Amino acid sequence: MKKFKKGFTIIELLVVLAVIGVFSAFAYPNISNWIEDRNIKKEITELETFIKEMKSEVSGGKYGMVQLQLFSIVEVYTMSTEKFMETYKNVQSSNNSYKVNKQCGSGSSQPNLVRNSSKEKISFGRSNNDSSVWVYPYNPSGTVICITKDSTIKYSGSNITYKDPGTGKDLDTFILCPRSISTQRTCNPSANLDTMYQITINNSQEIKIWRKTKGKNWVKIDG
Questions:
Q1: 77 burial type by CB count under 10 A (0-12 exposed, 13-18 middle, 19+ buried)
Q2: Interior CA angle at 79 toward 73 and 84, to 5°?
Q3: What are the residue boundaries of the structural domains of the chain, listed by start?
């Protein structure tokens, strides 16, 4: 006698589809959020690595000072070791305000500090269509840090800061917000988004990375 294989009934198929639909409804947002979080973390980690590379080049004597302007494009300005010594270490330059105040100016407005576009390989937001983030601050000069061997030269302007809850000290900060749920204007320190990251730099040029989720405080995840 010939036997027939029994297949799925319509009701069984509908039940399976319903289960898949329920699973997708719960799983998709979590997967999507995970992918977005991973992409943002990747960009801020790349920035951290780049800053450390510039610190290494200064420590190795390739440059006397490197200035980074962090905004939609990470602009790089360099000063040779020779010019750095003339500006900050020469005993005959006692009237030099940069030396007296132990400060650096903004970009090429300071003599002997030259933009080095060959080093500029990181960009965000409106300057990079492949970027997953908006950044803050983004205008006019972003967050400015001046990297030297002894970490004694500070930026003469004003940076946006974040008060470290552990030390109570103000840290220069640069914030990344998810591009999918924010805009350039809504990305700021008070934004209440699902995920935000910030990178901070203290007076010794030590780097920390922080993460904040909606309704929560910043939590240090590296540094």
A1: buried
A2: 145
A3: 36-222
| pTM, 2 dp | 0.83
Contact 211, 221 (CB under 8 A): yes
Taking the C-alpha atoms of residue 168 and residue 171, their distance in angstroms, rounded to an integer, is 9
Residue recorded with tokens 């420590």: 59
Instruction: Kindly report, residue by residue over 145-200, the tens digit of the pLDDT.
Output: 999 999 999 999 989 999 999 999 999 999 999 998 899 999 998 899 988 999 99
Sorted by sequence, the CB contacts under 8 Å of residue 87 that are 6+ apart come out as 79, 93, 96, 98, 99, 111, 112
Which of 74, 98, 73 minimizes the C-alpha distance to 88?
98
Give the separation between CA 76 and CA 115, rounded to whole angstroms: 6
